[in-house]
Design the sequence.
């Protein structure tokens, strides 16, 4: 089965080979992996260079700083799609999207790498890969420890363990995130996912799917489900901080950039739609409908 919207997308990449989507997919994968690896190595700089006292002082905050710049940098690159739109269209509308799509497939994986960074059990990996037994700064251990264990120790229960339930719920939300993402791409099309109609709104088609009656941005729900998975997997000060950074940056992207575009495109109708339908949080009464969407059933 051919990916929905593939023909429409390739039509607007006139000077690219037909296999360009595979190249873009590989690019996304590589940038995400490299970003996560680089952030992990930056996290370990105080352990590689223990003689630099200022690095030791910064150690507890380095993961948050790294994710912040990765997420903010990635979304800033994606915003170029909007900033250069009018200029590129004025120069040559036929190739305008073709020249901007590189920002989408570079910025998104860079931001995603910063988010996935929250999954990393830094000290655990450091001890097994580089034999670093302990962090240079004791505050780092506190930031990496799950909130549940911190509270349990504070009330006199040092044997408290919450790893298994955290892993179970983290995997559950991770599965929901991937299923929703794949389902959304196939239902709404790779052309919509790649923001093709930011450049060619006159070619956009209304996708009549009931999921839009319960949430305005079904594809972006995947990203927030992934965030929940990351948050639960560690449930530490690190993971809470990284997800807070992501939520602030990505929410600005949605409400400060994309929704402004949709209001311009659809006018008062979209303003009224915003009043009745949440952007990302699915009301508990609609969870059953959301699950039906995930498995391809009507509701």
Sequence:
């Amino acid at each position: 089965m051919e990916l929905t919207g593939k023909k429409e997308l390739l039509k607007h990449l006139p000077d690219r080979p037909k296999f360009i989507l595979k190249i873009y997919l590989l690019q996304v994968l590589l940038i995400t992996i490299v970003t996560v690896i680089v952030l992990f190595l930056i996290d370990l700089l105080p352990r590689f260079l223990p003689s630099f006292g200022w690095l030791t002082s910064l150690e507890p905050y380095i993961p948050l700083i790294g994710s912040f710049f990765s997420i903010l940098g990635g979304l800033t690159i994606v915003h170029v799609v909007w900033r250069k739109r009018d200029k590129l269209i004025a120069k040559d509308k036929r190739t305008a999207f073709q020249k901007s799509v590189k920002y989408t497939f570079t910025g998104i994986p860079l931001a995603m790498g910063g988010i996935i960074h929250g999954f990393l059990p830094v000290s655990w990996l450091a001890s097994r890969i580089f034999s670093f037994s302990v962090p240079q700064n004791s505050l780092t251990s506190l930031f990496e420890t799950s909130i549940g264990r911190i509270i349990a120790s504070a009330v006199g229960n040092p044997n408290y363990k919450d790893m298994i339930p955290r892993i179970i719920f983290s995997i559950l939300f991770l599965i929901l995130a991937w299923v929703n993402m794949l389902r959304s791409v196939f239902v709404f099309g790779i052309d919509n996912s790649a923001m093709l109609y930011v450049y060619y709104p006159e070619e956009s088609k209304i996708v009549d799917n009931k999921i839009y009656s319960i949430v305005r941005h079904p594809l972006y729900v995947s990203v927030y489900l992934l965030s929940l998975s990351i948050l639960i997997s560690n449930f530490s000060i690190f993971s809470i901080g990284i997800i807070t950074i992501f939520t602030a940056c990505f929410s600005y992207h949605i409400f400060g950039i994309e929704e402004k575009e949709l209001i311009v495109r659809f006018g008062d109708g979209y303003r009224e739609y915003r009043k009745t339908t949440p952007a990302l949080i699915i009301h508990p009464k609609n969870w059953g409908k959301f699950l039906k969407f995930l498995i391809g059933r009507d509701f």
Summary: The chain is about 70% helix and 0% strand. The two ends are 24 Å apart (CA to CA). The chain has one domain: 6-294. Residues 13 and 263 are 27 Å apart (CA to CA).
